[in-house]
Amino acid sequence: METLLVTGGAGFIGSNFVRMALGRGAWRVVIVDALTYAGNLDSLRDVSQDPNFVFVEADIADRNAMEALFREHRPRRVVNFAAESHVDRSIDGPRSFVRTNVQGTFELLEAARGLWGAESKAEREAARFLHVSTDEVYGSLGPEGAFTEDSPYAPNSPYSATKAGADHLVRAYFETFDLPTLVTNCTNNYGPYQFPEKLIPLVLLNALEGKPLPIYGDGGNVRDWIFVEDHCSAVLEVLERGTPGQCYNVGGHSERTNLEVVDAICAHLESLHPAASNAALQNQGHTRYAALKSFVPDRPGHDRRYAMDCSKIEAELGWRPQYDFDSALERTVRWYLEHRDWCEAVQTGTYRRTRLGLEG
Questions:
Q1: Which of 136, 229, 230, 237 is flagged as catalytic?
Q2: CB–CB of 43/10 below 8 Å?
Q3: Does 90 fall in a domain?
């Protein structure tokens, strides 16, 4: 059985991907995660007893640790989810983003080159290194159009700049060292196990507790949203059938303004856990979750709109998202309502859903 190495596998998208990969029964899955604030083994508890599950706590920017990891486990597939990923945090402290997103990706590429470079050409060509990136590397769109894989990079935050740097390194290792690399650039994810600093879980949990629902600026910033299981299925398709050296855009065909997303969360909460029966709102005299909406100063450098042209992955690999936004959002709201214990467990550190990213 071949070994699949998943970095950042205790995070939001990574843990969902690990669950899906183990379900296929095709790989021994080695997960490496530094278990920072957004990585938590509670997100993998239900699959941790699988005989093909191996967990290693390590930092991908630690050269010695990555070299030892590759020597011991000799992966044939690598999927790099590990990243500092919250734009607001990158404004407060860019240094950790450079370390993890750029240096960490470099160390993984070097470790893979060290392992696969000593193999025969046929063995090396059968391996795969898939780097998971973001639509934010392309910058901001106007009201029309969509990013393609040929769109120029124009990152506007420290987060997106470090992801862009990593993307370029991955491409360079294919061109220079013939390393069989791939890149996916994806839109905004949502679903189970997302750390509560991100928009959907933050708004959902604040609403349940009767706290303000912060909306940046006028709420008109547009994102394309994809359910995390759709994203994970796309990564698996690219990993197995994508062409080395290529990048693939992944999206959900679900553009929404931030205000529309907040309103949709409130509507699902009204249906599943009505405000009229929520003591936290009753104590404040509110009868609707929507009454908690609060417009706050915008994020510095906040991109106005992202949208993805996914015709390449659809045409070449036959992948398409299976979930529509409204039904998957309802499923997400239900999950958080049923897993309040997980929400509490992952917030035992310093983060308590406070506003970040006000520097500058």
A1: 136
A2: yes
A3: yes
What sign does the CA torsion over 38, 43, 49, 54 have? negative
Q: CA 308, 330, 237, 39 torsion: positive or negative?
A: positive
Q: What is the C-alpha to C-alpha distance for residues 219 and 228, in angstroms, rounded to an integer?
A: 23
Q: Encoding tokens for residue 329?
A: 């959002």
Q: Which residue has the tokens 């993984």?
A: 108
Section 169-179 average pLDDT: 97
Per the prediction, the chain carries an average pLDDT of 93
Confirm whether 8 is domain-assigned. Answer: yes
Number of domains observed in the structure of the chain: 1
Domain assignment present for residue 42? The answer is yes
Active-site pick, 33, 135, 167, 197: 135
Helical spans, DSSP H, in the chain: 12-24, 63-73, 87-92, 95-97, 105-116, 121-126, 158-177, 199-208, 228-241, 258-272, 279-282, 311-317, 325-338, 340-346
Nearest to 181 by CA among 249, 238, 101, 119: 238
Q: What is the pLDDT of residue 344?
A: 87
Separation between Cα atoms, residue 352 and residue 26, nearest integer Å: 39
Tokens 């420290």 found at: 158
178 is catalytic: no
| Reported confidence tier of residue 355, pLDDT bands at 50, 70, 90 | very low
Q: Which domain holds residue 178?
A: 2-195+227-253+306-323
Domain harbouring 90, CATH code: 3.40.50.720
First to last CA, the chain: 50
- 184-235, pLDDT tens digit by residue? 999 999 999 998 888 999 999 999 999 999 999 999 999 999 999 999 999 9
Q: Is 173 a catalytic residue?
A: no
Main-chain dihedrals φ then ψ at residue 82, nearest 5 degrees? -60, 125
Do the domain assignments include residue 328? no
Pairing of strands 128-134, 77-80: parallel
Judge whether 224 counts as a catalytic residue.
Answer: no
Distance CA 210, CA 236 (A): 39
Q: Which of 110, 138, 159, 289 is catalytic?
A: 159
